[in-house]
Amino acid sequence: MALEPHGPDTFVGTSLPYEWGRIYGGQVIAQGLAAAAATVSEDYRVHSLHAYFILGGRLDEPVRYEVDRVRNGRSFTTRRVVARQSYGAILTLEASFHAHEDGPDVQTVPMPDVRGPEELPEVGWGWVLERRQGMPDAGSARAYAWLRVDPTVGDSAVAHACALALASDTSTVTAVRATHPATRWTTRKEISEQFMAASLDHAVWFHRPARADGWLLIDVNCDNLIGVRGLTIGHVFDQAGTHVATITQEALVRERSGPTPSARDLSGT
With bands split at pLDDT 50, 70 and 90, how would you rate the model's confidence at 261? Predict the structure, then answer.
């Protein structure tokens, strides 16, 4: 998530070598949020972000993040970020930051009863993000995963919010695939062979502080699948059962009609 300044309100980030051939969307969201937060006073904490995926990010060049200071308000501050590579914008993101205000704290969403991370196989990528994903049932319209980032994330609230954003782009597409009436897979390899998929947009609401270097559960349900677009809603919990964030994503899912391309998407998101 580290960024280098590259002029006024402009930052540059690089990517890890993801094996499916393009930048993981959660990384671009996390770096975009980090760029926005770098232009905001520490008195404000991010409470929401909304992003659109425009083009797949290339691994062989850095990403340039351009921040627009839309508004500096007394209670809320708004930033708009465009992530670019040489061939154009790959993501747009808007983030809102809120100064602390005292008020009630009421949680109405209970943590689901699912298998713990110690009971599930590791399906991460060997660095940065550990991911233990439950194998979804075809037709269930649901997917879940436990995630945690590397302890080198540090202790700052901004870093942990960005790390949660990094982790949040998972299980969303899988929940849509698990909704599709044509689903016939029983393994993760069969999932990617039967369907091609891409994230279209992504939103996160940060409810309560959470350490992303501890296990977080993301429980995702597909609300609707219409044509080739599926809408998912997910709740994020820490291991104590605290509801720390809510995510939504619309994904594009198409059933493949020919041989699976050699550069399969193995992210499992």
Answer: low
Residue given tokens 């194998």 in the structure block: 135
pLDDT digits over 142-161, tens only?
A: 999 999 999 999 999 999 99
Beta-carbon-side half-sphere exposure of residue 147 (alpha carbons within 13 Å): 28
pLDDT tens digits, 85-123: 999 999 999 999 999 999 999 999 999 999 999 999 998
